[in-house]
Design brief:
The structure holds 2 protein chains of 2 kinds. By secondary structure, chain A is an all-alpha fold. Chain A has 5 helices and 1 strand. Chain A has helices at about 5-20, 30-40, 45-55, 60-100, 105-110, and one strand spanning about 60. The termini of chain A are far apart. The model of chain A is unreliable at about 110-120 (pLDDT under 50). Helices cover about 85% and strands about 0% of the residues of chain B. Chain B contains 5 helices and 1 strand; from the N terminus they run βααααα. Chain B has helices spanning about 5-35, 40-45, 50-85, 95-125, 130-150, and one strand spanning about 1-5. In chain B, α3 runs antiparallel to α4. Chain B starts with a strand and ends with a helix. The model of chain B has no long low-confidence stretch (mean pLDDT about 85). Classes of the chains: A mainly alpha, B mainly alpha. At the A-B interface, β1, α4 and α5 of A face β1, α1, α2, α3 and α4 of B. β1 of chain A pairs antiparallel with β1 of chain B, so a sheet runs across the interface.
Chain lengths: ~120, ~150
């Protein structure tokens, strides 16, 4: 379509849309468009109602396998991160033990080396 | 085809099982490793101390322990004395109060000095990279000891 012809059609179409017409005056094509818009309402409430009406959507097997694989990897990675944090916390407590064996103030504070005057 | 709900449940089960399995396996490995680890062994492992350095550093530790222990006892006694003075309302403005507090502060200073001298002597036996890391970590504890004393 030439640009001039397109512009002319566009102007005509815009003009038609600008004319305020009642719902009864809609043409067959416009009715069809509005029917499509009504069917594809993107509001979450409408979608939720649609899910309940039509049943929970089913997933194809590759998508299920992919989701399970993602869950597996996520579980393993989270476990590795958590276990690393656990190892670090143990290492920190070992460090505290080491320092309390070489610093007199910390040594006196630690439970294992608490000195009472009567004891020594 | 599988429903979205059953897929979600399956994913949650697989994810949880993977997490639980790997986490408890790694945790048991870590626990087993730390179970029989002494503080000195931890130090050797953490700062990559080789067998040759280990002997020298262990000797330094063994030589330092009695001195540290004496200082520790002295510090603990002074702290106990100060606590008794503080608890006694009659000794609130007593010169003994100030004297014990001063003595405790002095002992803390000496303890820090001993600690610094010792960590530098240990670092001297380590390779440069590890010694720098060791000194940095140990110096961090000086601030913590000050916090403990203030508490």
């Amino acid at each position: 379509m030439k640009k001039e012809t397109f512009d002319q059609h566009l102007e005509e179409a815009t003009e038609q849309l600008r004319t305020n017409r009642g719902a009864d005056d809609l043409g067959g094509f416009e009715r069809g468009v509005w029917a499509e818009i009504a069917l594809h309402d993107e509001r979450w409430t409408t979608r939720a109602v649609q899910i309940f009406r039509e049943g929970i959507p089913a997933l194809p097997m590759p998508a299920v396998a992919g989701s399970v694989a993602v869950a597996l990897v996520a579980g393993v990675l989270t476990a590795l991160v958590q276990s690393k944090a656990y190892g670090e916390s143990l290492s920190e407590s070992m460090e505290a033990q080491y320092v309390s064996s070489i610093h007199p103030v910390l040594r006196s504070e630690s439970e294992g080396h608490r000195h009472e005057s009567s004891g020594h | 085809m599988r429903s979205l709900f059953s897929t979600l449940v399956l994913c949650a089960i697989v994810g949880l099982l993977a997490f639980g399995g790997v986490y408890f396996w790694k945790k048991s490995q870590i626990d087993h490793h730390h179970e029989h680890l002494s503080a000195f062994e931890w130090f050797c492992e953490e700062f990559d101390v080789g067998p040759e350095e280990r002997q020298k550093i262990e000797a330094l530790h063994l030589a330092y322990f009695p001195e540290c222990e004496d200082h520790c006892i002295h510090y603990a006694d002074t702290k106990k004395t100060l606590a008794e003075i503080i608890e006694d309302p009659g000794l609130d403005q007593h010169p003994e109060h100030a004297k014990a507090a001063e003595q405790l502060a002095q002992l803390k200073k000496e303890a820090d000095k001993e600690f610094i001298d010792f960590i530098y002597s240990v670092a001297g036996e380590m390779d440069p990279k590890s010694s720098e890391r060791y000194l940095q970590r140990m110096k961090g504890w000086l601030e913590k000891t000050t916090e403990i004393v203030v508490e």
